[in-house]
Each structure stands twice: as structure tokens, then as C-alpha cells.
Amino acid sequence: MTGKRQFLAGLGLACLAGQAVANCGPGMMPVLTCDILTADQRVEFCAERPDAEGQSNRYSYNFAEALGAPELYFEDTGYYFSTKYYQPSQDAENTQGFGLAHGQHVYAFFVTGVDGGHVRMAQLHVYDSVDAFQSDRGETESLRLYCEPRSIRVNWDFIRP
Fold first, then answer.
1. C-alpha distance across the termini of the chain, in Å
2. Which residues contact 119 (CB under 8 A, 6 or more apart)?
3. Distance CA 11, CA 7 (A)
4. pLDDT below 70 — which residues of the chain?
5. Would you state the pLDDT for residue 10?
């Protein structure tokens, strides 16, 4: 296949894949992407490709209407991990969370599924503070949106505990 035909074939596959295809910046990889269930919106969490020590030093959050320009985009140099809904049990579904701080708010996702495999659901949460995100209590968020299940793409290698 020629370079031009390969490019066009790849472009066609990207179009067929739907909105949840990540639009991470150069040197970044998707951590979670999904379409919002109740609106024509998408969310993308990305991380810099890990260095030799396995560390990422830059993360990004992108929330947009359909395929348009981001309504909210920011980069961060660190992330928060949450296991507040995690209940260890072999071969059972568990929920893990990942959040990025922007100002006083934490923009986070929680993924429910079998570690490294099946993903049943994902939710986008917005918290008014890091303390609210890190609280052991559930339902401390100020906003919760649900991902369309078929659109969820997760990088399990990045988010597993």
C-alpha cells in the first residue's frame, strides 16, 4: 500500500472510531477518553509518555462539544489517584479514580470494570477542592457526568493501582 493510501485508510478508520478517539498533544497518550452520555460532548485525559523511570511529568484535560474546540483545556504537572470506591476482590469489578487539579477544582474520572479488561462504566466528576476529591466519603463531587459505555477507552497500564 502506498503512503497516500495508508494515510487515507488510517483517516477512514479514525473517522469510523467515533468521537472518543483521543486528541492528545505531541508526546502525550490517552489515559481515558469517552463521549458524554447525555450531551454531544467528549472528555479526554492524557499523559506524557513515561520516561525511563516510568514517570509522566505532564497531564492534560480536554472537555469539548462534539468535535469542536475545547471548552476547557489545561495541563498539569501532577495527578491524584483515588481508591475510595475500590473494594479488593479477585476477578471482581472495581472502581478507580484519577484527578487533575485546576485552580481550586479537581477534574476526575472514575472507571468501573475488571482491572486490565472489561470496562462497565466511567464517570466524570468535578470537585470543588482536593479535600473533596480525596475524601473517603462518596458523592462529594459538585458535578457528575456519565460516559457512553461503548465510547470508553481506558489505558489500564496507567491507572491500575
1. 42
2. 111, 112, 113, 149, 152, 154
3. 6
4. 1-22, 88-91, 160-161
5. 35
Residue 141: C-alpha distances to residues 29, 124, 125, 127, 133 (Å): 26, 10, 6, 5, 7
CA pseudo-torsion sign 59, 63, 67, 70: negative
- Per-residue confidence (pLDDT) for residue 89, from 0 to 100: 65
Those residues whose C-beta lies under 8 Å from the C-beta of residue 67, and which sit 6 or more positions away, are 19, 42
In this structure, are residues 33 and 47 in contact, taking their beta carbons and an 8 Å threshold?
no
- Give residue 129's Cα distance to chain centre: 19
Q: Contact, 30 vs 19, CB < 8 A?
A: no
Are 86 and 95 within 8 A, CB to CB? yes
142's CB contacts (< 8 A; 6+ apart) are 126, 127, 128, 132
* Counts of helices then strands in the chain (DSSP H, E): 3, 10
CA distance 59 to 155: 14
- Return the residue matching grid coordinates 513515561: 50
Q: How many residues does the chain have?
A: 161
Contact of 122 with 154, CB cutoff 8 Å: yes
